[in-house]
Amino acid sequence: MRRRTAPVLQLVVLLLLCCLAHLTTPQETTNLYAECKGIAGDWIPECWSATYAQISFGGDRTLYFTPYLSRRWGNALSPYWQARALALIAGQGFDAYEGFVGGWMQHLPKKLPPTTCPELGRFKEACDQCDSDSWLYAHRCHGAWQQIRPTIINDTHAAVQAWLQASKQQQQQQPSFSPGDVVIQSRCSEDTLLSHPEFGPVGFSFYNGIDAAATKAIYIVAQPGKQLPACAAIRAAKVKHLEARYPNASVQVVGGKLEEDFLRLLFAPVLFKDAQSSFGLWAALANKGQVFSVPMLPLYTNVTTPDLGGGWHWVAAPVLYPSVAEAAGIAKNDSEAPVAVPQQCCGLAVAAGSDCKGEARHFDDINLPTPAPAAILVPRYAQGSRGQSSNQAYTL
């Protein structure tokens, strides 16, 4: 027994000596950024506020991201694209664990190796521009996502095509459009109309950019089912306005499943995105056609009209945000009117058909004779030619 035990003891001692030698001998540090000039080999990005969006950096040159799973696609995609962009700017790989579950988003990339070198200036800018409250809703701020639109286009279309191919048995198809067709996103509901600080009906002057000669069909994408009276009135007024301004185009209200509406926005030849909708934003950023959008809100960013590349057009159209409505004394439930009109309507708000004695009404935004076919008018608070505030109105 002693003879058999000795070799075993010798082996154990040898292993212990090897481990001790490994711990006491200086080890050669792996340079993770050998191909990147000016970057320390052991650099690990630090962006403390990103942790609120479940983004973390490992010591292996990888950004780890835990997806936010939600049927509110806009809110789910915001931290995903912010994480993807941050990984590219910081020269990191990307690991989203199992990724999204179901639908086209399950086909978005889950794991990617590092393909770029860190850009320290851009990385710092992206981190500084998004505070801890904005990362979960990265569409609010001037973050990293604005710098990777080509990636958003390529990966979104690849994921959608993979999903469509796998969904053939479910008869899910890509929408069919003719060149010049226009799609208008119309987001109006109980939780947005004069309720959410980032939402509001957009003035009809927003649609003046539609090419009358090239447009044969206009599709208004709106939520199906029962609508708030105010939302229904705004939608009806919008249809009448577009029919009057573009008599050669058919105007249709469409809307259905979440997937169908996203595809309509994604593949539209010409898209008008509604206010600050994140659902509309990510579809619009991946759209390969012409996109029109009102500026981002200055509440969350100093850059309200960032350069998003060719085909993206910022339009300074008025929006009835809750703060604007509050200043004008407008509330959605004050009366049966779509948006209540206070008695002191002149200079604040004017309902179609009402009279404001002693004051002239202006319809320059819609270029239609009075009375306008719109349900509501509110002021732009534009400066008059003599430096005084004018009461020019715009329609919703």
From TrEMBL:
Keyword terms: Signal
Keyword Signal carried by entry: yes
Protein name per UniProt: Exostosin GT47 domain-containing protein
Signal peptide residue numbers: 1-26
